[in-house]
Write a structure and sequence with these properties.
Blueprint lengths: L1 E7 L2 H8 L6 E6 L8 H11 L3 E4 L13 H22 L2 E7 L22 H16 L4 E6 L2 E2 L6 H11 L2 E5 L3 E2 L2 E2 H13 L1 H4 L2 E4 L6 E2 H12 L9 E5 L19 H7 L6 H14 L1
Parallel strand pairs: 1-2, 1-3, 3-4, 4-5, 5-10, 6-9, 7-12
Antiparallel strand pairs: 8-11
The structure holds NADP nicotinamide-adenine-dinucleotide phosphate.
């Protein structure tokens, strides 16, 4: 099967490329090779490569900066998705699109189901939601939306790598304790996306949630990163202290509780993902051995 992955160079696309099935013909394309906001660029690539499936990892992901750069956030996360959906629809190409827990406001008090009412708190969340809506109105039956959350990987920019850098230079760091979610190793999501690609006909036409299992605050996650990475770090123990979001203001508002309900995902996959702490251990081994 021929598969195109957009947003090459990002953390998820890098993991997709690392675990791509040997039997598939996979092209992971950077924004320079395929710009999803440029119709000509999309048409040229699709006509040349003739993929069976496109996995759209391309996104404007700078959550705080999006508050000041609304135009570009909507251009990529809404208009780019619509362009891609139209061109895939014209050619009968299956489309797997990645979205986010930030389409919810975090007030549910229980894990969010795929059909729960969205209510984004930020420009990033709103632009991703409008991308989902475009896809669902333009190409609902031959696409799959996969919402995920709190992604990290040995590649690209993410919370784990930021913590590891801070542990090298600080003795004490403060991390927010009142935002709860599920840290998710992009490697595990990549494996699930290859499952969906192979089983596209049975899974298409809806929204699935994918994260690792378990729940943590950013503070819990930072404490775990500190403990699990100790054996590799040259520096001594670092103290991780909890703070409230009010003490660590950010430009974009974030949901306090953004755990996703994965019941349907585990049913179609026939298994569950790993607990986030097990995945963290594996990612750190990966990070320190490369
Ligand atoms: N990271 C998270 O915690 C998280 C959580 C929930 C959902 N998600 C979603 O998961 C997906 C993958 O995220 P990620 O963490 O891998 O993001 P990432 O590392 O920021 O990668 C995004 C990629 O998209 C590319 N891109 C931006 N504009 C583009 C355009 N117009 N055309 C083509 N490519 C473009 C970027 O390329 P350039 O660098 O060249 O611009 C970048 O390589 C996204 O849909 C994101 O919204 C992420």
């Amino acid at each position: 099967m021929k598969v195109i992955v957009t947003g090459g160079g990002g953390q998820l696309s890098t993991e997709l490329s690392r675990v791509a099935p040997a039997e598939d013909d996979v092209a992971v394309l950077s924004s320079g090779e395929l710009d999803i906001t440029d119709g000509d660029s999309i048409r040229q690539v699709l006509d040349l490569e003739k993929p069976h499936i496109v996995i759209n990892c391309a996104a404007y992901t700078a959550v705080d900066r999006a508050e000041d750069e609304q135009d570009i956030a909507y251009l990529v996360n809404r208009d780019g998705v619509a362009l891609l959906a139209r061109e895939c629809a014209r050619r009968n190409i299956g489309l797997i699109h990645i979205s986010t827990d930030f389409i919810f406001d975090g007030r549910a008090g229980r894990p969010y189901r795929p059909d729960d009412m969205p209510a984004p708190l930020s420009v990033y969340g709103a632009s991703k939601l409008e991308g989902e809506q475009e896809l669902m109105s333009l190409y609902p039956n031959e696409s799959i939306i996969v919402r995920t959350a709190w992604l990290y990987s040995a590649y690209g920019r993410n919370f784990v790598k930021t913590m590891l850098e801070l542990f090298e230079t600080k003795d004490v760091i403060k991390v927010v304790e009142d935002q709860v979610g599920t840290p998710t190793w992009a490697h595990n999501l990549a494996n699930f996306l290859w499952f969906l690609t192979a089983n596209f006909e049975n899974c298409k036409g809806g929204i699935l949630h994918f994260t690792d299992t378990g729940v943590a605050s950013w503070y819990d996650f930072a404490v775990a990163i500190e403990e699990e990475s100790r054996k590799w770090r040259s520096k001594k123990e670092v103290q991780v202290l909890p703070v409230n979001s009010e003490e660590y203001p950010t430009k974009a508002r974030r949901p306090f509780y953004s755990v996703l309900d994965k019941t349907e995902t585990w049913r179609v996959w026939g298994r569950t993902s790993e607990h986030w702490r097990v995945s963290l251990r594996k990612m750190l081994r990966d990070y320190y051995s490369t």
